[in-house]
Amino acid sequence: MKKSIIFLVLIVVIGVIAFVPGIRNFMKDTFFPVATIEKAVHVGEEDYDIELKGINAPSTNLKNFKNKAVFLNFWGTWCPPCRKEWPSIQKLYDSRKEHVDFVLIAMNDKEEDVRKFLKENNYTVPVYIAQSPISEKILPKVFPTTFLLDKNGRILIKEDASKDWDSETVHQFIDNIIK
Asked: A biological process (GO) annotation for this entry (predicted)?
């Protein structure tokens, strides 16, 4: 009888892990991150060609960040989830800016609204407004959308929602890709 109960509990636990998407994805990301990297989509040379007007950084082109690890975020001042994740992005930037380039692109925003938002919140993460078309490969469908690109242009993380970017998991992931 005792073995049957243990067996039944084990089957239920395995079933929950296998069939509940949130738990399955968490387990996959936690225990098999290498598989994610091996299957990563690459951002091509043409995808990097985006003229960027600097808001609190010099104007540049995204292709100047090629061959570097890049935290690429698409956001807007009008987007509540975008605003929610900003404090954690600022903390991540403060601790990892020496190893990862941060490029935050304000979308569908007025320059003065972006400047006001940054100033009011004392944010220093480099922010830009795209001055040329964005490749379909990285053009966001929802906001915020964040990509973590390695120096080879592989998309290692794509997050289509607000996230706590100052978590230990994110820090460890970044530490592993910059080695």
From this structure: cytochrome complex assembly
Three-class SS state of 114: helix
Reference 64, options 43, 48, 53; nearest CA is 48
Strand spans (E) along the chain: 51-54, 60-61, 70-75, 101-106, 127-130, 145-149, 155-159
Q: What is the pLDDT of residues 65-99, one digit of tens each?
A: 999 999 999 999 999 999 999 999 999 999 999 99
Q: Is residue 150 scored above 70 in pLDDT?
A: yes
Prediction pTM value: 0.79
ω into 144 cis (within 30 of 0): yes
Q: Is the pLDDT of residue 34 over 60?
A: no
